[in-house]
Amino acid sequence: MSDLKNRLLPMLGHVSGKRSAVTCALKCGNACAQGVCNTSSNNYFRDVVSAEFSRRNMLGVSGAGVLALMFGGGAAANAGSATGLAPAAKVGQAGNGSKLKFTGIDGVANTVDDVVVPKGYNWKPVIRWGDPLFNDSAEFDPENQTPESQAGQFGYNNDYLDIIEIPGTNGKRAVLFANHEYTNENLMFPPTMDPSVVRRTAMAAHGLSVVELRRKGKGQPWEYVRGAKLNRRFLMDTEYELTGPAAGSKLLQTQADPTGRKVLGTQNNCAGGTTPWGTILSGEENFNQYFKVSNPSDEQRRYGLTNTNPSRGWHVEETRFDADLPEGKNEDNRFGWIVEVDPFDPTSTPRKHTALGRFKHEGANVTIAKSGHVVSYSGDDERFDYLYKFVSKGKYVEGDKKHNMTLLTEGDLFVASFTGNSPRNQIDGSGVLPSDGSFDGTGHWIQLTKDGKSLVPGMEIDQVLVYTRLAADKMGATKMDRPEDVEVNPHTGKVYMACTNNTKRTAAEVDEANPRANNKHGHIVEITETGDQASTEFTWNLLLVAGDPAVDESVYFAGYPADKVQPLSCPDNVAFDSAGNLWISTDGQPGTIQRNDALYRVTLEGPERGKVEQFMAVPIDGETCGPVIHDEDGMVYVAVQHPGEDGSWDKQRSLFPDYLPAGTPSGKGGLPRPSVIQMYKGKNGH
Ligand code: FEO
Ligand code: CA
Ligand code: CA
To answer: Which domain of life does the protein's organism represent (predicted)?
Structure first.
């Protein structure tokens, strides 16, 4: 089938300026090649929300008793319980307190097809695309994959990752969650494979996986357990329950589901978060690229539904993905949500939470305010889109999982407005610091919903939640440079947002929170909520302005000497270790600083604040997703996504992770397999 490549990559040739054209086409549906979705007239620089709205927001939240709360109450992201704040390194205290000792590696050239780890560390896959999960699953057979075999195997392109130890097993058992963002049919299947089999097998390689792990003890590598009782695949025919104020809305009703409450499947899951009650949140991101639509509405355009002929062709297999047909009406509105999954209950129904709004969710991370309300932060990953926050109506109850699993179904949704404190003429688009020495300022959370009602003029509650981008446009949110992962530091309560890049921002469009024109390297925003995690006011500053300090004077790593930091570009996922250091993984370095994507530790507190150390690099064309840092037992995990992306079935560029001899045919295993890997102390190598 010689037209396979063209069919899958109709826009190949476009390059966004940072990563492979293939990744642009397959991962995001060429989002960067499309026009900017956000054509709203929000002011780029000033906070334009009226004093009236501002006052109402304040009253709204204080009415819920939240403003009276004091700062604090972070929950360790992976600890499974709400904990107090542990001490971080203090100002004046040397070092970063991390239990993970390593000597940082150098940047790795973007031609290297290898996992590079520090001296004294080893790495090994935990699970690979195609590994069978169940006793009756077919073995991975790249030459002859089918929808049925893939449905019983680990999916493709793992992104969000967590590994949660099972209590009472002394660190010997765990449950792994990974989502599967998208597929690269050019690498995965022989060109001779039947097109319908390709489409349906690729569909089964999307979704989510839960897999049990076992090992000999702490600090030892894991292996996955085939046939374990918690193992589960979530496929495109898995039923999800819509919750919250928009569930049942006519905007969510379809021919197949007149209730508007039951959705089959999840699409393009990217980052995520693990809740303090032990469930997983996963973000539906570039869902627009799976729908055929010829005459998009204004609302559909705002969500990027402009691709009239989706390259994966799912609409050929299932007419609900054809928005031009009656069967497809409203189906696109049923994707773009935060999904919650209970990995410890294999019979549970996964849910999509409408109260958190619908957009291109990178992920969502929950913390607990001192009051007990839970707060979820979520970025909308598109150029010039927004940062959101959800505050639950109910309160967290330690140990009551059933109750806590209701917390994301009711609450108030906010969107962020950032205001700089330096004169406009000092924010010139070059990225050079203003005279006060910092890109910083104040901000507030604009309230979109309150007690299940809309606060957006002219929009009902279901419209605000289904068309959240349009609601936020109306309320004057600040246009950011692609908000990716947003996480709370469990030690300090500060919030860290990765803005990965935005090469479309012009000098006329810069503001102090997005100060560089043609921002190809991205930046990290550090947010301090005023008083409490549920507050409506905050202060902010840019922690990192990324890039290569050797060639770019705008690079800023919290004031750490530029000649002592390593280049870092396109921050994407963030995580914290047990000492409160920030870990950053990247997506796009091969195209910007000619290095493979990588994982870095950044010291946040003390005299070495801003020190960046590279822990590892992923193989050629790959992305460093889902970092999990268990420094307490010396383990680091990443989900290696799209290794060898620019290859083809007949000419692979990566043999990760098995590295069979060069020349091994793809059908015999000579192909890249996106995999979760673990890194730990041991003899160097694999
Ligand atoms: Fe799937 Fe925003 O990266
Ligand atoms: Ca400033
Ligand atoms: Ca991402």
So the answer is: Bacteria
For residue 286, give the ligand 1 atom closest to its CA: 1
For ligand 3, the distance from its centroid to the CA atom of residue 240, given in whole angstroms, is: 23
pLDDT at 670 over 80: yes
For residue 490, the model assigns a pLDDT of 94
The pLDDT score that the predictor gives to residue 29 is: 84
Contact present, 306 and 36 (Cβ < 8 Å): no
DSSP class of 547:
B
What residues pack around ion ligand 3 (CB closer than 5 A)? Answer: 270, 572
CA–centroid distance, 422 to ligand 2, in Å, is 4
Q: What is the pTM of this model?
A: 0.91
Reading the block at residue 623, the tokens are 């992305």
CA distance 305 to 211: 34
Look at residue 411 and give its three-state secondary structure: strand
Spatial contact of 420 and 498, defined as CB atoms under 8 Å apart: no
* Secondary element (H or E) of residue 403: helix 401-404
In the reported structure, the alpha carbon of residue 543 is separated from the centroid of ligand 2 by a whole-number distance in angstroms of: 12
| Cβ-based neighbours of 185, under 8 Å, separated by 6 or more | 4, 8, 198, 202, 312
In this structure, what token pair is assigned to residue 450? 């309150």
- Residues 550-594: tens digit of each pLDDT: 999 999 999 999 888 889 999 999 999 999 999 999 999 999 999
Fill in the amino acid letter for 537. E
DSSP string, 420-454: ESS-GGG--BB----TTSS-EEEEEEEE-EETTEE
What tokens were used for 494? 């500060």
Please name each of the domains of the chain with its CATH number.
35-66+74-285+336-652+675-681 (2.120.10.30)
Element spanning 469, H or E = helix 468-475
Average pLDDT estimate for 196-206: 98
Ligand 1 in reach of 623 Cβ (< 6 A):
no
Q: What is the pLDDT of residue 97?
A: 84
Which pLDDT tens digit goes with each residue over 234-247?
Answer: 999 999 999 999 99
Q: Please, what is the average pLDDT of the chain?
A: 89
Determine whether the shortest distance from the Cβ of 235 to ligand 1 is under 6 A: no
- Kindly tell me the sign of the dihedral angle through the C-alpha atoms of 198, 281, 359, 25: negative
> What DSSP string runs through 637-674?
EEEEESTTTT-BTTB-S--TTT-PPTT--GGGT-S---
Q: Is the CB of 9 under 6 A from ligand 1?
A: no
Spatial separation of the C-alpha atoms in residues 383 and 394, rounded to whole Å: 33
Please give the span between the terminal C-alpha atoms of the chain, in angstroms, as a whole number. Answer: 37
